[in-house]
Specification:
Length: 202
């Protein structure tokens, strides 16, 4: 079974330190639990362009190199790597593609050709569900509310890592997982279903 894994906020943390950088630059102070959408410019009440400027600051501070992993992600990804066919799909900007590929290789031993950039977030070339279709990926682990619904509507099974910003997501193809432990449990269930005959509804 092929599985795609989003990187930011699924494997490595991003939002908390991003909010700190924004606050240190004089923008609105927002608590992590009050992040109601992953569209952070809405949360910070700033222009979208300013959000990318803050991201530049974030990169300059070296936060993309000095990562903090999401709880359970390292063990979880290693388990998936050993038992399934995994890809990483991210909308990170191409400017940090080398850092990102190095991170994935150094931490998980997964080669760079398995780390796919869906396009610069400023002007993406391809969206993530097109990429999944081309690669035959049926399951994706995500946190973004918009991306998750996009995948789900296109028939992908989404394992949604529970976050303050994705509370509104509800779809029959989305399974909310509290943590990486639950993600792995759900993957095994999906894998079981994957190899059996499809269920016939009465
Ligand atoms: Mg993410």
């Amino acid at each position: 079974m092929k599985i795609a894994i989003d990187i930011d906020e699924v494997v490595v943390k991003f939002v908390e330190r991003y909010l700190e950088v924004a606050k240190s630059r004089g923008y609105k102070s927002v608590l992590y639990e009050d992040v109601f959408t992953y569209n952070l410019w809405k949360v910070l009440e700033i222009e979208k362009k300013v959000m990318f400027d803050i991201m530049e600051e974030y990169n300059l501070m070296g936060y993309y190199k000095d990562v903090i992993f999401v709880e359970g992600a390292q063990k979880g990804v290693r388990f998936l790597r050993d038992n399934y066919d995994i890809y990483f799909i991210t909308s990170r900007p191409k400017s940090i593609s080398k850092v990102t590929r190095d991170l994935i290789f150094n931490e998980f031993g997964v080669l760079g050709d398995r780390v796919i950039f869906s396009g610069d977030v400023l002007g993406g070339a391809k969206n993530k569900d097109e990429i999944c279709r081309e690669l035959g990926i049926k399951v994706i682990i995500e946190d973004s509310e918009d991306e998750s619904l996009g995948y789900a509507k296109n028939g992908l099974r989404v394992l949604l890592l529970d976050k303050p910003w994705n509370q509104s997501v509800k779809h029959e193809n989305v399974c909310r997982c509290r943590d990486w432990g639950e993600i792995l449990e759900r993957v095994e269930v999906l894998d079981g279903h994957d190899s059996s005959e499809p269920e016939v509804k009465e």
